[in-house]
Write a structure and sequence with these properties.
There is one protein chain. By secondary structure, the chain is of the alpha/beta class. It has a domain at 7-193 and 426-442: ATPase, nucleotide binding domain (Nucleotidyltransferase, domain 5). The chain contains twelve helices and 19 strands. It has helices at residues 73-81, 115-134, 154-170, 181-190, 240-252, 276-281, 293-300, 309-320, 324-341, 361-386, 406-413, 429-442; strands spanning 3-4, 19-24, 28-35, 38-41, 50-52, 54-58, 70-72, 86-90, 104-108, 111-114, 140-145, 175-180, 197-204, 209-216, 230-236, 343-347, 356-360, 395-399, 420-423. Helix 3 links the parallel strand 11 (140-145) and strand 12. Helix 4 (181-190) packs across helix 12 (429-442), helix 5 packs across helix 9 (324-341) and helix 5 (240-252) packs antiparallel against helix 10 (361-386). The protein is globular and about 80 Å long.
Amino acid sequence: MPSRSRPPTPPAAAANAPCCAIDFGTSNSAVALPGPAGVRLVVLEGGQPTMPTAVFYQADGLAHGAEPPRLYGRAAVAAYVEGQDGRLMRSMKSILGSALLEQRTDVGGGRAVRYGDVITGYLRHLKKLADAEAGASITRAVLGRPVFFVDDEPERDRQAASALADAARAVGFQELHFQYEPIAAAFAHEATVQAEQLVLVADIGGGTSDFSLVRVGPGRRERLDRGDDILANHGVHIAGTDFDRRVALAAILPLLGYGSLGPARAGEPARELPSSIFYDLATWHLINTVYAPARLAEWRGMRSWYADPQQHRRLMTVLEERLGHALAGAAEQAKIDVALHGHAAIDLDLVEQGLAATLDAGGAARALQTDQARIVDAAHETLRQAGVPAAAVQAVFFTGGSTGLTSLVDGIAAVFPGATAVRGDRFASVAQGLGLHAARVFSR
Protein backbone atom coordinates (compact mmCIF):
# COMPACT_ATOMS: atom_id res chain seq x y z
CA MET A 1 0.00 0.00 0.00
CA PRO A 2 1.34 3.46 -0.80
CA SER A 3 2.04 5.56 2.25
CA ARG A 4 -0.15 8.59 2.83
CA SER A 5 1.48 11.91 3.59
CA ARG A 6 0.11 14.52 5.94
CA PRO A 7 0.50 18.26 5.45
CA PRO A 8 2.96 19.64 8.01
CA THR A 9 2.22 22.48 10.37
CA PRO A 10 3.54 25.73 8.88
CA PRO A 11 5.42 28.42 10.72
CA ALA A 12 3.14 31.12 12.09
CA ALA A 13 2.33 33.86 9.60
CA ALA A 14 2.41 37.48 10.64
CA ALA A 15 -0.70 38.19 12.66
CA ASN A 16 -1.32 41.71 11.41
CA ALA A 17 -2.43 40.74 7.90
CA PRO A 18 -4.02 37.46 6.80
CA CYS A 19 -2.81 35.65 3.71
CA CYS A 20 -4.15 32.86 1.54
CA ALA A 21 -3.06 30.46 -1.17
CA ILE A 22 -5.03 29.74 -4.32
CA ASP A 23 -4.81 26.67 -6.51
CA PHE A 24 -6.48 28.01 -9.66
CA GLY A 25 -6.78 24.74 -11.51
CA THR A 26 -7.84 23.85 -15.02
CA SER A 27 -10.66 21.61 -13.78
CA ASN A 28 -11.03 22.47 -10.08
CA SER A 29 -9.82 25.15 -7.70
CA ALA A 30 -9.11 25.32 -3.97
CA VAL A 31 -8.11 27.96 -1.42
CA ALA A 32 -5.97 27.46 1.69
CA LEU A 33 -5.55 29.66 4.75
CA PRO A 34 -2.33 29.22 6.76
CA GLY A 35 -2.40 29.85 10.49
CA PRO A 36 -0.73 28.90 13.77
CA ALA A 37 -2.59 25.57 13.87
CA GLY A 38 -1.66 24.64 10.31
CA VAL A 39 -3.08 25.02 6.84
CA ARG A 40 -6.84 24.78 6.53
CA LEU A 41 -8.86 24.61 3.35
CA VAL A 42 -11.71 27.05 2.74
CA VAL A 43 -15.12 25.47 2.19
CA LEU A 44 -16.02 26.75 -1.26
CA GLU A 45 -19.31 25.15 -2.17
CA GLY A 46 -21.70 22.58 -0.78
CA GLY A 47 -19.44 21.79 2.15
CA GLN A 48 -16.57 20.91 -0.20
CA PRO A 49 -13.07 22.43 -0.18
CA THR A 50 -12.77 22.22 -3.95
CA MET A 51 -14.94 23.75 -6.65
CA PRO A 52 -15.08 23.25 -10.42
CA THR A 53 -13.32 26.05 -12.26
CA ALA A 54 -16.51 27.05 -14.03
CA VAL A 55 -18.62 30.17 -14.52
CA PHE A 56 -22.14 30.27 -15.98
CA TYR A 57 -23.49 33.56 -17.29
CA GLN A 58 -27.27 33.42 -17.01
CA ALA A 59 -29.33 34.88 -19.85
CA ASP A 60 -32.83 33.68 -18.91
CA GLY A 61 -35.10 36.72 -18.56
CA LEU A 62 -32.17 39.08 -18.99
CA ALA A 63 -32.91 42.51 -20.42
CA HIS A 64 -30.89 43.28 -23.56
CA GLY A 65 -27.47 44.60 -22.61
CA ALA A 66 -27.96 44.09 -18.87
CA GLU A 67 -25.17 42.63 -16.71
CA PRO A 68 -25.76 38.85 -16.67
CA PRO A 69 -25.82 37.22 -13.23
CA ARG A 70 -23.17 34.56 -12.71
CA LEU A 71 -23.07 31.17 -11.08
CA TYR A 72 -19.85 29.46 -10.06
CA GLY A 73 -18.58 25.92 -9.60
CA ARG A 74 -21.09 23.11 -9.30
CA ALA A 75 -23.97 25.55 -9.56
CA ALA A 76 -22.59 26.75 -12.91
CA VAL A 77 -22.29 23.22 -14.25
CA ALA A 78 -25.79 22.32 -13.00
CA ALA A 79 -27.31 25.33 -14.80
CA TYR A 80 -25.70 24.24 -18.05
CA VAL A 81 -26.79 20.62 -17.64
CA GLU A 82 -30.35 21.74 -16.91
CA GLY A 83 -30.38 23.60 -20.22
CA GLN A 84 -30.69 27.13 -18.83
CA ASP A 85 -30.16 29.87 -21.37
CA GLY A 86 -26.68 31.27 -20.98
CA ARG A 87 -22.99 30.51 -21.46
CA LEU A 88 -20.79 28.09 -19.52
CA MET A 89 -17.07 28.87 -19.31
CA ARG A 90 -14.64 26.14 -18.22
CA SER A 91 -10.90 25.46 -18.49
CA MET A 92 -10.32 29.21 -18.18
CA LYS A 93 -6.70 28.69 -17.20
CA SER A 94 -5.94 27.57 -20.75
CA ILE A 95 -6.80 31.08 -22.00
CA LEU A 96 -3.76 32.54 -20.24
CA GLY A 97 -0.98 33.20 -22.71
CA SER A 98 -3.33 33.10 -25.71
CA ALA A 99 -4.66 35.83 -27.97
CA LEU A 100 -8.15 35.05 -26.65
CA LEU A 101 -7.42 36.82 -23.37
CA GLU A 102 -8.22 40.27 -24.78
CA GLN A 103 -11.07 39.14 -27.01
CA ARG A 104 -14.74 39.28 -26.10
CA THR A 105 -17.29 36.48 -26.24
CA ASP A 106 -21.08 36.52 -26.30
CA VAL A 107 -22.71 35.30 -23.09
CA GLY A 108 -26.36 35.78 -24.12
CA GLY A 109 -28.87 38.55 -23.75
CA GLY A 110 -26.94 40.77 -26.13
CA ARG A 111 -24.04 40.92 -23.71
CA ALA A 112 -20.37 40.18 -24.40
CA VAL A 113 -17.54 39.86 -21.89
CA ARG A 114 -13.78 39.90 -22.21
CA TYR A 115 -12.24 36.46 -21.65
CA GLY A 116 -9.72 37.97 -19.24
CA ASP A 117 -12.59 39.38 -17.17
CA VAL A 118 -14.03 35.88 -16.81
CA ILE A 119 -10.82 34.83 -15.03
CA THR A 120 -10.84 37.98 -12.90
CA GLY A 121 -14.44 37.39 -11.89
CA TYR A 122 -13.74 33.82 -10.86
CA LEU A 123 -10.72 34.86 -8.78
CA ARG A 124 -12.83 37.60 -7.16
CA HIS A 125 -15.37 34.95 -6.15
CA LEU A 126 -12.62 32.80 -4.59
CA LYS A 127 -11.25 35.83 -2.72
CA LYS A 128 -14.72 36.68 -1.40
CA LEU A 129 -15.04 33.18 0.05
CA ALA A 130 -11.55 33.35 1.53
CA ASP A 131 -12.24 36.77 3.06
CA ALA A 132 -15.41 35.44 4.67
CA GLU A 133 -13.54 32.48 6.15
CA ALA A 134 -10.69 34.68 7.41
CA GLY A 135 -13.00 37.38 8.74
CA ALA A 136 -10.94 40.06 7.03
CA SER A 137 -10.00 41.34 3.60
CA ILE A 138 -6.98 39.35 2.44
CA THR A 139 -4.37 41.33 0.53
CA ARG A 140 -1.49 38.82 0.44
CA ALA A 141 -1.60 35.64 -1.58
CA VAL A 142 0.40 32.83 -3.10
CA LEU A 143 -0.88 31.46 -6.41
CA GLY A 144 0.07 28.18 -7.90
CA ARG A 145 1.37 28.04 -11.43
CA PRO A 146 2.29 25.20 -13.78
CA VAL A 147 5.91 24.70 -14.72
CA PHE A 148 4.91 25.98 -18.16
CA PHE A 149 1.65 27.74 -18.97
CA VAL A 150 2.64 27.40 -22.62
CA ASP A 151 5.09 24.73 -23.73
CA ASP A 152 8.16 25.74 -25.73
CA GLU A 153 7.12 29.40 -26.04
CA PRO A 154 8.91 31.40 -23.31
CA GLU A 155 7.40 34.76 -24.26
CA ARG A 156 3.82 33.48 -24.18
CA ASP A 157 4.61 31.70 -20.92
CA ARG A 158 5.73 35.02 -19.40
CA GLN A 159 2.61 36.71 -20.74
CA ALA A 160 0.41 34.05 -19.12
CA ALA A 161 2.08 34.49 -15.72
CA SER A 162 1.77 38.26 -16.02
CA ALA A 163 -1.91 38.03 -16.98
CA LEU A 164 -2.68 35.84 -13.96
CA ALA A 165 -0.81 38.27 -11.69
CA ASP A 166 -2.74 41.20 -13.16
CA ALA A 167 -6.05 39.42 -12.53
CA ALA A 168 -5.06 38.65 -8.94
CA ARG A 169 -4.07 42.26 -8.26
CA ALA A 170 -7.29 43.49 -9.86
CA VAL A 171 -9.34 41.64 -7.24
CA GLY A 172 -7.39 43.11 -4.34
CA PHE A 173 -4.26 41.04 -3.75
CA GLN A 174 -1.59 43.66 -3.20
CA GLU A 175 1.32 41.38 -2.32
CA LEU A 176 1.60 38.38 -4.59
CA HIS A 177 3.91 35.38 -4.92
CA PHE A 178 3.89 32.30 -7.13
CA GLN A 179 4.96 28.74 -6.48
CA TYR A 180 5.20 25.85 -8.93
CA GLU A 181 2.30 23.43 -8.53
CA PRO A 182 4.38 20.21 -8.55
CA ILE A 183 6.71 21.61 -5.90
CA ALA A 184 3.72 22.64 -3.80
CA ALA A 185 2.21 19.16 -4.17
CA ALA A 186 5.44 17.58 -2.91
CA PHE A 187 5.81 19.82 0.16
CA ALA A 188 3.93 17.41 2.43
CA HIS A 189 6.21 14.53 1.42
CA GLU A 190 9.30 16.75 1.68
CA ALA A 191 8.56 17.41 5.35
CA THR A 192 8.91 13.69 6.08
CA VAL A 193 12.25 12.97 4.38
CA GLN A 194 15.61 12.99 6.16
CA ALA A 195 17.80 13.28 3.08
CA GLU A 196 17.58 14.70 -0.41
CA GLN A 197 15.38 12.71 -2.81
CA LEU A 198 14.34 12.67 -6.44
CA VAL A 199 10.54 12.57 -6.53
CA LEU A 200 8.28 12.13 -9.52
CA VAL A 201 5.08 14.09 -8.92
CA ALA A 202 2.21 12.47 -10.84
CA ASP A 203 -0.75 14.85 -11.02
CA ILE A 204 -3.62 13.08 -12.81
CA GLY A 205 -6.60 15.39 -12.89
CA GLY A 206 -9.72 15.88 -14.95
CA GLY A 207 -8.18 17.09 -18.19
CA THR A 208 -4.44 16.45 -18.11
CA SER A 209 -1.89 14.04 -16.69
CA ASP A 210 1.23 15.94 -15.67
CA PHE A 211 4.57 14.61 -14.44
CA SER A 212 7.35 16.60 -12.83
CA LEU A 213 10.68 15.28 -11.62
CA VAL A 214 11.66 17.34 -8.58
CA ARG A 215 14.33 17.46 -5.90
CA VAL A 216 13.17 17.63 -2.29
CA GLY A 217 14.95 17.47 1.02
CA PRO A 218 15.57 19.12 4.38
CA GLY A 219 18.20 21.43 2.89
CA ARG A 220 15.76 22.72 0.31
CA ARG A 221 12.44 23.04 2.08
CA GLU A 222 13.06 26.58 3.37
CA ARG A 223 14.09 27.94 -0.04
CA LEU A 224 11.42 30.22 -1.49
CA ASP A 225 12.57 29.93 -5.10
CA ARG A 226 12.33 26.27 -6.10
CA GLY A 227 12.60 26.60 -9.86
CA ASP A 228 16.01 24.90 -9.90
CA ASP A 229 14.50 21.87 -8.16
CA ILE A 230 12.31 21.00 -11.17
CA LEU A 231 14.42 18.80 -13.42
CA ALA A 232 11.76 18.01 -16.03
CA ASN A 233 8.07 18.41 -16.71
CA HIS A 234 5.88 16.64 -19.25
CA GLY A 235 2.21 15.86 -19.66
CA VAL A 236 -0.55 14.64 -21.94
CA HIS A 237 -4.13 15.82 -22.38
CA ILE A 238 -5.58 12.55 -21.17
CA ALA A 239 -7.17 12.18 -17.74
CA GLY A 240 -10.42 11.81 -15.82
CA THR A 241 -12.90 13.06 -18.39
CA ASP A 242 -11.37 10.72 -20.98
CA PHE A 243 -11.76 7.82 -18.53
CA ASP A 244 -15.44 8.70 -18.05
CA ARG A 245 -15.88 8.65 -21.83
CA ARG A 246 -14.28 5.22 -22.12
CA VAL A 247 -16.49 3.85 -19.33
CA ALA A 248 -19.64 5.22 -20.98
CA LEU A 249 -18.71 3.63 -24.32
CA ALA A 250 -17.75 0.32 -22.73
CA ALA A 251 -20.52 -0.20 -20.19
CA ILE A 252 -23.52 2.07 -20.83
CA LEU A 253 -23.92 3.10 -24.46
CA PRO A 254 -23.93 -0.46 -25.87
CA LEU A 255 -27.39 -0.71 -24.25
CA LEU A 256 -28.46 2.09 -26.58
CA GLY A 257 -26.96 0.46 -29.66
CA TYR A 258 -23.32 1.51 -29.68
CA GLY A 259 -21.27 -1.12 -31.49
CA SER A 260 -24.40 -3.05 -32.52
CA LEU A 261 -25.11 -4.37 -35.99
CA GLY A 262 -28.29 -3.51 -37.84
CA PRO A 263 -30.66 -6.12 -39.32
CA ALA A 264 -29.24 -8.44 -41.93
CA ARG A 265 -30.51 -7.71 -45.44
CA ALA A 266 -30.58 -10.01 -48.43
CA GLY A 267 -27.25 -10.02 -50.20
CA GLU A 268 -25.72 -7.44 -47.86
CA PRO A 269 -23.63 -7.81 -44.70
CA ALA A 270 -25.11 -6.36 -41.53
CA ARG A 271 -23.97 -2.78 -40.99
CA GLU A 272 -22.76 -1.36 -37.71
CA LEU A 273 -24.86 1.52 -36.45
CA PRO A 274 -23.35 4.98 -37.05
CA SER A 275 -21.24 5.81 -34.02
CA SER A 276 -21.03 9.61 -34.04
CA ILE A 277 -24.10 10.10 -31.85
CA PHE A 278 -22.62 7.79 -29.22
CA TYR A 279 -19.23 9.50 -29.22
CA ASP A 280 -20.99 12.85 -28.74
CA LEU A 281 -23.09 11.41 -25.90
CA ALA A 282 -19.87 10.25 -24.23
CA THR A 283 -18.10 13.64 -24.60
CA TRP A 284 -19.21 16.07 -21.91
CA HIS A 285 -19.00 19.32 -23.85
CA LEU A 286 -20.71 17.82 -26.93
CA ILE A 287 -23.71 16.30 -25.19
CA ASN A 288 -25.99 19.31 -25.66
CA THR A 289 -25.41 19.11 -29.43
CA VAL A 290 -27.28 15.80 -29.69
CA TYR A 291 -30.54 17.49 -28.68
CA ALA A 292 -30.69 19.69 -31.79
CA PRO A 293 -34.01 19.24 -33.64
CA ALA A 294 -32.28 18.08 -36.82
CA ARG A 295 -30.42 15.31 -34.99
CA LEU A 296 -33.53 14.22 -33.15
CA ALA A 297 -35.42 13.98 -36.45
CA GLU A 298 -32.52 12.08 -38.04
CA TRP A 299 -32.43 9.42 -35.32
CA ARG A 300 -36.21 9.07 -35.10
CA GLY A 301 -36.05 8.09 -38.74
CA MET A 302 -33.35 5.48 -38.15
CA ARG A 303 -35.48 2.92 -36.34
CA SER A 304 -35.16 0.51 -39.28
CA TRP A 305 -31.38 0.57 -38.88
CA TYR A 306 -31.68 -1.20 -35.54
CA ALA A 307 -31.91 -4.98 -35.27
CA ASP A 308 -33.09 -4.48 -31.69
CA PRO A 309 -35.91 -1.87 -31.59
CA GLN A 310 -35.61 -1.69 -27.81
CA GLN A 311 -32.15 -0.18 -28.15
CA HIS A 312 -33.58 2.47 -30.45
CA ARG A 313 -36.32 3.28 -27.93
CA ARG A 314 -33.71 3.71 -25.22
CA LEU A 315 -31.63 6.05 -27.38
CA MET A 316 -34.66 8.18 -28.23
CA THR A 317 -35.61 8.36 -24.55
CA VAL A 318 -32.13 9.70 -23.78
CA LEU A 319 -32.29 12.25 -26.60
CA GLU A 320 -35.88 13.42 -26.08
CA GLU A 321 -35.60 13.64 -22.29
CA ARG A 322 -32.10 15.14 -22.39
CA LEU A 323 -30.51 12.46 -20.24
CA GLY A 324 -27.01 12.64 -21.74
CA HIS A 325 -25.38 14.40 -18.80
CA ALA A 326 -27.09 12.02 -16.39
CA LEU A 327 -25.47 9.12 -18.27
CA ALA A 328 -22.12 10.92 -18.14
CA GLY A 329 -22.58 11.27 -14.39
CA ALA A 330 -23.39 7.57 -14.13
CA ALA A 331 -20.19 6.73 -16.01
CA GLU A 332 -18.13 8.94 -13.71
CA GLN A 333 -19.70 7.35 -10.63
CA ALA A 334 -19.04 3.88 -12.03
CA LYS A 335 -15.37 4.81 -12.46
CA ILE A 336 -15.28 5.99 -8.83
CA ASP A 337 -17.07 2.87 -7.56
CA VAL A 338 -14.63 0.58 -9.36
CA ALA A 339 -11.73 2.55 -7.87
CA LEU A 340 -13.18 2.23 -4.36
CA HIS A 341 -14.79 -1.20 -4.41
CA GLY A 342 -13.52 -3.06 -7.47
CA HIS A 343 -16.95 -3.15 -9.14
CA ALA A 344 -19.87 -0.90 -10.04
CA ALA A 345 -23.61 -1.49 -10.45
CA ILE A 346 -24.92 1.19 -12.81
CA ASP A 347 -28.61 1.99 -12.28
CA LEU A 348 -30.22 3.15 -15.54
CA ASP A 349 -33.84 3.29 -14.40
CA LEU A 350 -34.07 6.83 -15.74
CA VAL A 351 -33.77 5.36 -19.25
CA GLU A 352 -35.87 2.24 -18.79
CA GLN A 353 -37.34 0.64 -15.70
CA GLY A 354 -35.05 -2.14 -14.49
CA LEU A 355 -32.24 -1.31 -16.93
CA ALA A 356 -28.77 -1.68 -15.41
CA ALA A 357 -25.17 -2.25 -16.36
CA THR A 358 -22.15 -3.53 -14.47
CA LEU A 359 -18.46 -2.79 -14.57
CA ASP A 360 -15.69 -4.63 -12.74
CA ALA A 361 -12.02 -3.83 -12.28
CA GLY A 362 -11.01 -6.01 -15.22
CA GLY A 363 -13.54 -4.37 -17.53
CA ALA A 364 -12.45 -0.91 -16.43
CA ALA A 365 -8.79 -1.79 -16.96
CA ARG A 366 -9.54 -3.00 -20.50
CA ALA A 367 -11.59 0.11 -21.28
CA LEU A 368 -8.85 2.41 -20.03
CA GLN A 369 -5.88 0.40 -21.27
CA THR A 370 -4.99 2.64 -24.23
CA ASP A 371 -5.32 5.87 -22.27
CA GLN A 372 -3.36 4.53 -19.32
CA ALA A 373 -0.57 3.33 -21.59
CA ARG A 374 -0.19 6.85 -22.99
CA ILE A 375 -0.06 8.27 -19.47
CA VAL A 376 2.65 5.81 -18.46
CA ASP A 377 4.55 6.76 -21.62
CA ALA A 378 4.41 10.38 -20.44
CA ALA A 379 6.09 9.34 -17.18
CA HIS A 380 8.86 7.68 -19.21
CA GLU A 381 9.23 10.81 -21.35
CA THR A 382 9.65 12.98 -18.26
CA LEU A 383 12.64 10.91 -17.17
CA ARG A 384 14.05 10.90 -20.67
CA GLN A 385 13.95 14.71 -20.77
CA ALA A 386 15.72 14.87 -17.41
CA GLY A 387 18.32 12.29 -18.45
CA VAL A 388 17.57 10.33 -15.29
CA PRO A 389 17.12 6.52 -15.10
CA ALA A 390 14.02 5.12 -13.44
CA ALA A 391 16.17 3.54 -10.75
CA ALA A 392 17.21 7.00 -9.53
CA VAL A 393 13.64 7.98 -8.60
CA GLN A 394 13.17 7.40 -4.88
CA ALA A 395 9.48 8.30 -4.53
CA VAL A 396 6.43 8.77 -6.74
CA PHE A 397 3.96 11.26 -5.29
CA PHE A 398 0.39 10.79 -6.55
CA THR A 399 -2.15 13.60 -6.53
CA GLY A 400 -5.19 14.56 -8.59
CA GLY A 401 -8.70 13.13 -8.63
CA SER A 402 -7.97 10.35 -11.10
CA THR A 403 -5.29 8.76 -8.93
CA GLY A 404 -8.13 6.92 -7.22
CA LEU A 405 -7.88 4.38 -10.07
CA THR A 406 -5.78 1.51 -8.77
CA SER A 407 -4.89 0.18 -12.21
CA LEU A 408 -3.50 3.57 -13.24
CA VAL A 409 -1.51 4.11 -10.04
CA ASP A 410 -0.15 0.57 -10.18
CA GLY A 411 0.83 1.01 -13.83
CA ILE A 412 2.80 4.15 -13.09
CA ALA A 413 4.35 2.73 -9.91
CA ALA A 414 5.51 -0.35 -11.85
CA VAL A 415 7.85 1.87 -13.87
CA PHE A 416 9.69 2.68 -10.63
CA PRO A 417 9.88 -0.58 -8.66
CA GLY A 418 12.51 0.81 -6.30
CA ALA A 419 10.55 3.96 -5.44
CA THR A 420 8.15 4.52 -2.57
CA ALA A 421 4.62 5.25 -3.78
CA VAL A 422 3.13 8.12 -1.77
CA ARG A 423 -0.48 9.22 -2.00
CA GLY A 424 -1.18 12.85 -1.27
CA ASP A 425 -4.61 14.40 -0.95
CA ARG A 426 -6.16 13.64 -4.32
CA PHE A 427 -7.92 16.98 -4.56
CA ALA A 428 -6.02 19.38 -2.34
CA SER A 429 -2.30 18.52 -2.18
CA VAL A 430 -1.41 21.54 -4.29
CA ALA A 431 -3.58 23.95 -2.27
CA GLN A 432 -2.18 22.64 1.02
CA GLY A 433 1.38 22.99 -0.24
CA LEU A 434 0.71 26.50 -1.48
CA GLY A 435 -0.70 27.35 1.93
CA LEU A 436 2.50 26.11 3.55
CA HIS A 437 4.52 28.22 1.14
CA ALA A 438 2.35 31.27 1.91
CA ALA A 439 3.11 30.86 5.61
CA ARG A 440 6.84 30.74 4.89
CA VAL A 441 6.81 33.69 2.50
CA PHE A 442 4.72 36.03 4.61
CA SER A 443 6.33 35.22 7.94
CA ARG A 444 9.69 36.57 6.73
